[in-house]
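re: ur question from earlier - yeah i can do the single chain one, its not a big deal. heres the input i used so u can compare w yours
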Amino acid sequence: MMGHWPLTVLVTSLLWATCRTAPAQCHFNSQALCEYEGRSYSLGESWMESGCIQCTCLHPVGVGCCETVHRPVDFPAWCEVRVEALTCTVRLVQSADPRLPCVSHGNSLDPSHGTLGMQLGR
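and the output i got, formated as tokens:
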């Protein structure tokens, strides 16, 4: 058991380094292989999976993956989050018509700031 300590420190460091720039959800899979779309990866190598998920090979202990987009959590019920898969950008759009941006009182809501741009009703 003591022999795994250096490997555990390395795995934790690599996963932290991969995910530290994007405070999003991360997961670790000890059963996963360091392969994606027919390509094999070595220890420390990263790749981007569909859905804007960045994964890092932590061979021989598994694969660590983190979302790379910042999803807003505080916005009106009539809005929804859309993630552009090719550019990994996030937009808030109207649920009734996703072609239109989420707007309140003439101000476009910034998805990175939730409802900060909204004026409260009196």
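The chain has two domains: 2-67, 69-122. not sure if urs matches, ping me
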